């Protein structure tokens, strides 16, 4: 029975308010148990880094996610490895064989010029839903705000469903300082001109997740969420944790 007044959450087949988890080797039995209870809180599942290539029973894992209505995809590092070795046609075949319908195009480890990424996206989007990523995994690499904006806008215009802002699974690069602090000025500048519903902010810890919930609202798209944190995240989104206790009953704080 619902009797509390809580922030309005998107549900069902969400197009925003997404929770994207990172799977870095969750055993099948453990995954089954978690999805049985929490699958309705999860929208996307990234088989993190290049782990899909060496994950036992990867096809069964992909099928399990899809059975629970979750969209699985492989981490961008695997795409970059295939690009580096000139194996993109083979990568397409691999994804089709797995039954994966989403693909991440990134340049977090190697520098792939934007023009070339846009060209790759134009080919992949004919067969897959494309997510792209902006930002480097190198915490020493500084990317100007205008470059962030330009890349995100061009990637969305090229047909990407969403753009991920790099943060790593440690929250120490991309949109974060080395010590894990959010680059808040960068975030504020991005939100001035770009539809936040088309951005997935990598937020690997509850602290990072709370920042974006407070800044944008309960229906912010969040990525690199650990499976064990899914329920805690939903609790935060619903104003049921001390740090978000007084969150307004609005779909989103931004106009």
Automatic annotation (TrEMBL):
Pfam family, one: ComA
The protein's name: Phosphosulfolactate synthase
Family: Belongs to the phosphosulfolactate synthase family.
UniProt xrefs under InterPro entries: Aldolase_TIM, ComA_synth, ComA_synth_sf
Organism this protein belongs to: Neobacillus mesonae
Highest taxon of the lineage: Bacteria
């Amino acid at each position: 029975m619902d009797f509390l007044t809580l922030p309005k959450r998107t549900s069902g087949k969400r197009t925003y308010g997404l929770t994207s988890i990172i799977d870095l080797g969750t055993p099948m039995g453990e995954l089954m148990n978690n999805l049985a209870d929490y699958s309705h809180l999860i929208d996307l599942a990234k088989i993190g880094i290049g782990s899909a290539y060496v994950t036992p029973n990867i096809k069964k894992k992909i099928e399990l996610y899809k059975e629970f209505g979750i969209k699985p995809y492989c981490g961008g590092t695997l795409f970059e490895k295939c690009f580096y070795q000139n194996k993109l046609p083979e990568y397409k075949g691999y994804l089709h064989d797995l039954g994966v319908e989403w693909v991440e195009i990134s340049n977090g480890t190697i520098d792939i010029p934007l023009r070339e990424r846009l060209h790759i996206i134009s080919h992949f989007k004919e067969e897959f839903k494309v997510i792209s990523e902006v930002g480097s995994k190198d915490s020493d690499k500084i990317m100007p705000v205008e470059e962030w904006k330009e890349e995100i806008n061009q990637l969305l215009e090229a047909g990407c469903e969403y753009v991920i802002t790099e943060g790593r699974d440690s929250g120490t690069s991309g949109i974060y300082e080395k010590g894990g602090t959010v680059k808040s000025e960068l975030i504020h500048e991005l939100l001035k001109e770009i539809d936040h519903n088309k951005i997935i902010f990598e937020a690997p810890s509850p602290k990072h997740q709370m920042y974006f919930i407070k800044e944008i609202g309960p229906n912010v798209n969040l990525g690199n969420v650990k499976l064990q944190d899914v329920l805690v995240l939903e609790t935060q989104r619903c104003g049921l944790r001390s740090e978000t206790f007084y969150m307004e009953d609005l779909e989103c704080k931004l106009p």
